[in-house]
Design goal:
It is a single chain. By secondary structure, the protein is mostly helical. The chain has 7 helices and no strands. It is globular and about 50 Å long.
């Protein structure tokens, strides 16, 4: 019988920016595991908040997980502690849309809420600058823009994809 690996919670207060650098495949695997531990810590922290239902906590963590592990770490191979609002925009207005089978604002909203929660958590516990968290949260709040990008994507005809892609390049 095989068992799933257990991922320990990572103490964000002991996290260094260099630990999240990715230069090799081994680094990517290490940072992915580190990210899982941070997400477990986020889950534990959010679970303590009164009035926050477990299913909401789960959605936040799932949303942050998708952005961090699929986009920032696996696709971009970037340091998760150096994320900016620009990267959130690139993700939500381009990458998510082309990588999803049926991109929609309901799903994207859950992801954006998770991203915002994760970076506020890091600002509170890992020492990332509050200005960085504010920039990320401001990007997460651009819901009308992201809805328009999804609508425009579904309306593409002929060779319109090139213009759509160039409006928010990766």
């Amino acid at each position: 019988m095989t068992t799933q690996p257990h991922f320990e919670t990572v103490n964000p207060e002991k996290l260094s920016e260099q630990e999240c650098d990715i230069a090799t495949l081994e680094d990517e695997i290490r940072v992915d595991r580190l990210c899982r531990g941070l997400l477990r810590a986020l889950f534990n922290e959010l679970s303590k908040q009164p009035g926050l239902k477990p299913e909401i906590v789960g959605r936040y963590c799932h949303g942050a997980d998708y952005f961090l592990r699929d986009f920032i770490i696996a696709d971009r191979r970037q340091n998760l502690l150096q994320v900016t609002g620009t990267q959130v925009r690139q993700f939500a207005a381009h990458w998510y849309i082309v990588k999803s089978l049926e991109p929609n604002m309901s799903e994207l909203t859950g992801i954006l809420n998770g991203i915002a929660a994760f970076y506020w958590f890091l600002a509170d516990h890992a020492g990332i600058p509050r200005e960085q968290a504010e920039s990320i949260c401001a990007a997460c709040a651009e819901r009308d823009y992201f809805q328009q990008r999804i609508d425009d994507f579904w309306s593409i005809e002929g060779d319109g994809f090139i213009a759509w892609r160039n409006a928010e390049p990766l």
